TrEMBL record:
Gene3D superfamilies linked to this entry: YejL-like
Name of the protein described by the UniProt record: UPF0352 protein FEM41_22050
Family: Belongs to the UPF0352 family.
Pfam families assigned to the protein according to its UniProt record, in alphabetical order: DUF1414 (PF07208)
Classification via InterPro entries: UPF0352 (IPR009857), YejL_sf (IPR023202)
Domain of life: Bacteria
Amino acid sequence: MPQTSRYSDERVEALLSELVEVIEKHRAPTDLSLMVLGNMVTNLINSSVAPNQRRILARSFAEALNSSIHEDKAH
């Protein structure tokens, strides 16, 4: 079941577009891009979330990521 965001699609797309531009500018391969994005997520959680909520948020984030992955053969 999709969740409703408090942020507009335009705001999300603008931020996503800028992040993609940076990754493309550095010609980062997929594994490096994922490593950097994972480090960013870890840093955000550790620096912005109360210690007793970090594991809960990380688990929720991982579940949301996992549910958004498509099983199709294309890549």
